Amino acid sequence: MEISLENKTVLVTGASAGFGRACAERFARAGARLVLVGRRAERLEALRRDLPVPSLAAALDVRDRAAVERFVAGLPSGFGEVEVLVNNAGLALGLAAAQAASLDDWEQMLDTNCRGLMVFTRALLPGMVARGHGHVVNVGSVAASYPYPGGNVYGATKAFVHQLSQNLKADLAGTGVRVTVIEPGMAETEFSLVRMKGDAEKAKAVYAGMQPLTAKDVAEAVFWVATRPAHVNVNVLELMPEAQGFGPFTVKRG
Ligand code: NDP
Ligand code: 8X3
Predict the structure, then answer these.
(1) Which CATH class name applies to 9-239?
(2) 154 assigned to active site
(3) Which H, E and C letters describe 78-135, residue by residue?
(4) Where are the domains of the chain?
(5) Ligand 2 centroid to residue 44 C-alpha, Å
(6) What is the Cα 3 distance to its own chain's centre?
(7) Which residues pair with 63 in a beta bridge?
(8) pLDDT given for residue 1 in this prediction
(9) Residues lining ligand 2, judged by CB closer than 6 Å?
(10) Ligand found nearest the CA of 88
(11) Distance between CA atoms of 207 and 181, rounded to whole angstroms?
(12) How far apart are alpha carbons 63 and 175 in whole angstroms?
């Protein structure tokens, strides 16, 4: 039977924009209680006010391990028993070739996309296992599997997310706790604006002349995996715009 998330707590990281915000709205439509995490407090607060369900906004940088651990340990009653963790906060910074890329950008991607996800997961798993149910939904990317020029460390962080998700599944089999990695292709959110360091024209050009995925498309996928019957674990769900495909191998001649 499809799982009901009514009155269950769903914690979404990166809820101030894009996929995270759309996930919060989707789960709220099903009556879930929401914990909204991100750095931009006003955005989270505005979303919290708009949601028709009990929700909690937490301005938190997922890179701050101590702050995340404190936050999870201090979740108030009614929000402490997290049923679904959507590890979505993440970013790509730049498209420079490895030999020219910024090491600071690389570190920020690693700390956000990998460490942040790791700390939230580790903090919430013991409770899920003790209760005998729960679901960790990690947002990966097609960049985990298909390399492209300038993808370097971003793709590597998403390969980490893919492999960690599979290894979590290996550890958690039989505990009642499920693990899924959702791996989208191009989707129009603030992702490219962040990657292009605020250059709106460059960001818009990424989606010119094609129909990208929307945040809602991805949120539907997250919601779908989280509401499958309890005995069903969707391990990996990869989705792309119809207009996106795979590049051929490049060969530099001469
Ligand atoms: P957005 O830029 O629209 O949203 C990213 C979210 O992550 C924001 O809410 C942002 O909030 C949050 N975030 C970033 N850094 C931190 C941090 N240090 N601490 C807390 N929150 C943080 O992008 P998307 O919605 O597109 O991206 C969401 C996820 O999806 C990312 O992991 C991304 O890699 C992945 N993805 C995106 C694709 C795309 O084409 N859009 C495709 C495949 C995967 P704030 O700035 O307020 O902290
Ligand atoms: C984001 C999708 O193709 O820009 O993860 O890497 S892509």
Answers:
(1) alpha beta
(2) yes
(3) CCCCEEEEEECCCCCCCCCCCCCCCHHHHHHHHHHHHHHHHHHHHHHHHHHHHHCCEE
(4) 9-239
(5) 24
(6) 21
(7) none
(8) 85
(9) 141-143, 151, 185-186
(10) 1
(11) 24
(12) 28
